[in-house]
Write a structure and sequence with these properties.
Number of strands: 14
Strand order of the largest sheet: 4-10-9-8-7-5-6
Distance between the termini: 49 Å
Largest sheet: 7 strands, mixed
CATH topology of the largest domain: Aspartate Aminotransferase, domain 2
Number of domains: 2
CATH architecture of the largest domain: 3-Layer(aba) Sandwich
Mean pLDDT: 94
CATH superfamily of the largest domain: Type I PLP-dependent aspartate aminotransferase-like (Major domain)
Helix content: 40-55%
Structural class: alpha/beta
Shape: globular
Radius of gyration: 22 Å
Number of helices: 16
CATH class of the largest domain: Alpha Beta
Low-confidence stretches: 130-137
Length: 412
């Protein structure tokens, strides 16, 4: 049959990925978790300490969030029943959006099914939206940091613009952004600058104050101005003194901020905050919001509780514990002579390996010793920059961190 040739081509690509030691589909299947303060994953009956989770504050197992989830399900059911403009707009979603907007000091917020879907919506809609005289896609330029997350890239692709409406600036280089803005004066009405806040592979963060200074200097040069969009999925909730992410660390704000509920806040889903006119426009134009169900009611209830907790004493203590654990881990790793792939003060602490096969061996070696970590390889990172992405949680105990570092040293 003709399609067998197509399936053979698919198999050949799978074989290539397997041989390169970069395949991702054979993931560990977690059967349950223990009830420890720092829960262990149970895989085929064996317990594993988790050092590869985005649950930076340990909230996904927090009893208060579980109780909020259960109570909300009892009130609203297990699902929204429809997309929001039909019959699925629940009061819990509005309560959560108001709490998110208040947390970030913005006029409004919009919750979407995932942070990936949020970025696709934000980028495609702001690029393609109507301007006074023409489609913005015909009159705008999007400028992206060269190491932005795949979701941002897909959002730009979804806008269906050609290469003349896209530009790249060097990674975390505000002066290179200045160069791009200078070169494009008089060519476009609107500029959209987009960047990750915290870059997920290395734990580095964009200096928003430097970007903001460059953008503000050129804003009046373009008839419709320059809009700064920041995806701070890895920063919100765990980065900064009060967990408000890279904006707090840098003392500068984005015009449109994308965040997630699925990392530090311990639940699931994505969100965007900004001026009300921007959020209202996205509610009307974002396909991943208009035509896709929202997060489950229980998830929304748990997320609302997480935002409340972050502004209470317990949230302050969790953030302090996170910082203390990161400092301890970095100190112990340095004492063992182990090399980080980047200088990071974020829970993401990447161990540089430099070879895909070796990175996989290290991961498997730690797995045999009862630890879950993730090897990151090209094309997710540059060739020769293969790493073990270690993620430190506020829930980790001092003993867990100490024994883990000894295990890493042993495997290496």
């Amino acid at each position: 049959m003709p399609k067998s040739a197509f399936f053979s081509a698919l198999q050949a690509e799978l074989d290539r990925l397997d041989q390169a030691k970069v395949s991702k589909r054979n993931e560990n299947v977690i059967e349950s978790f223990t009830s420890d303060p720092s829960p262990k994953a149970v895989i085929q009956g064996k317990q594993y300490t988790i050092f590869n989770s985005n649950d930076y504050l340990g909230l996904r197992h927090h009893p208060v969030l579980k109780e909020a989830d259960h109570a909300t399900v009892e009130k609203f059911g297990t699902g929204p029943g429809a997309v929001r403009f039909i019959s699925g707009s629940l009061q819990m979603y509005k309560d959560l959006e108001q709490a998110i907007a208040k947390f970030h000091g913005r006029e409004d917020a919009m919750v979407v099914s995932s942070a990936f879907a949020t970025n696709v919506a934000v980028m495609s809609c702001l690029i393609k939206g109507q301007s006074k005289e023409s489609m913005v896609s015909e009159n705008s330029l999007v400028i992206s940091d060269e190491l932005n997350h795949r979701s941002i890239i897909e959002g730009i692709r979804a806008a269906s613009i050609d290469s003349t409406h896209k530009a790249i600036f060097k990674h975390m280089d505000a002066e290179d952004l200045r160069r791009v803005l200078e070169e494009n004066k008089g060519k476009f009405a609107r500029i959209i600058v987009v960047t990750d806040g915290v870059f997920s592979m290395l734990g580095e963060y964009q200096d928003l104050a430097k970007l903001r200074a460059v953008i503000d200097a050129y804003d009046a040069t373009y008839p419709e101005g320059i809009v700064l969009v920041v995806d701070d999925a890895h920063g919100v909730g765990c980065f900064g003194t009060t967990g408000r992410g890279v904006e707090e660390v840098c003392g500068a704000k984005a015009d449109v901020l994308v965040g997630t509920l699925g990392k530090a806040f311990g639940t699931d889903g994505g969100y965007v905050v900004g001026d009300k006119v921007v959020i209202d426009y996205l509610r009307e134009s974002a396909a991943t919001y208009v035509y896709s169900n929202s997060i489950s009611p229980g998830t929304a209830g748990a997320a609302l509780k997480a935002f409340e907790m972050m502004q209470e004493a317990e949230g302050t203590q969790l953030l302090k514990q996170s910082r203390d654990n990161i400092a301890l881990f970095k100190k112990l790793m340095s004492e063992e002579g182990l090399v980080f792939a980047a200088e990071s003060t974020h829970p993401i602490q990447p161990l540089l390996i430099g070879d895909p096969a070796k990175a996989k061996q290290v991961k498997l070696g730690l797995y045999e010793m009862g630890y879950l970590v993730t090897n990151i390889n090209y094309p997710v990172v540059s060739k020769g920059r293969d790493e073990i992405r270690i993620q430190i949680s506020a829930a980790h105990t001092q003993t867990e961190i100490e024994t883990f570092v000894k295990a890493v040293k042993s495997v290496m």
